[in-house]
Amino acid sequence: MKDQTLIRLVVVILSVLIKCYCSAQTLITIYTPKGNPVPDTYSWIPEWTSYQVDSANLYTSLTYPNATRIADVSRTYNCHGYAWQFSEGGQPLWIGWRTVGAQSIYWSDGSYIESSNQVYPAKVRYAGVDHSAITTDQQDIFISKWRFGPLMRHHKDYSPYYSSTLLFYI
Question: For residue 85, is it within any domain?
């Protein structure tokens, strides 16, 4: 009898957790400037609690003291959502939750063209590490969203992401 009650309780808890997880993400359709749908894109709510935000902000400040936090930690958007959509005036969203490289549609459809040099303004692709950023008016200083972390202004080599190959798109 106790085993059946425990099993029911576990099933109920798992059902609630799955429902909360699934309802936290809403698959949405957005489009590149050329009009093609961007795959694997989600609107993500709710936001972190204030305690989680404060704790993660503090951790980032202590770990990366030479980078500047522009916006608090957030789980409503990621680096690709920021660089390719939100920084252009779009809504905060998460591109590529389940698909690595979902953001490639922006350059594969010709919406953005690769530049042989770092220019401003431009999008930055950290090749091989699935990270996106935008350039600033200062050479090698980028702005990027750090996964569930904050939006940061940082040197190209001073972040949780590193790639020896940076590709720029205008």
Answer: yes
